[in-house]
Specification:
Length: about 100
């Protein structure tokens, strides 16, 4: 799996009910045609990511078909989850500091 681009949005909590900072990342990935995740239109991974007290972690993730935005009924393998986690950490580390 090759993640080739992403978007990131802060999940706002106007009532301040949640602790930590939460983000939604969309990771656009490619896989070989032989991979079970392969679709002709491609897919992206929607990741809900939490940063709290110096800890960063994936809360949940969903695989979506790029053409239809439909949720795909697949799970990532352990090494793919690790790759997604590392990618999310690098994205978060590159965010500008809040003033």
């Amino acid at each position: 799996m090759n993640i080739n681009r992403h978007t990131i949005e802060v999940i706002e909590d106007p009532f301040e009910l949640l602790t930590g900072d939460r983000f939604e990342l969309r990771l656009y990935a490619e896989v070989d045609e032989e991979d079970e995740l392969y679709t002709e239109s491609g897919f992206y991974i929607r990741v809900l990511y939490l940063v709290e007290n110096g800890e960063e972690k994936i809360i949940n993730y969903f695989l979506h078909d790029r053409a239809t935005d439909e949720v795909l009924d697949f799970e990532l393998e352990e090494d793919e989850i690790t790759a997604v986690e590392e990618y999310c950490k690098s994205v978060y580390a590159a965010l500008p500091e809040e003033e």
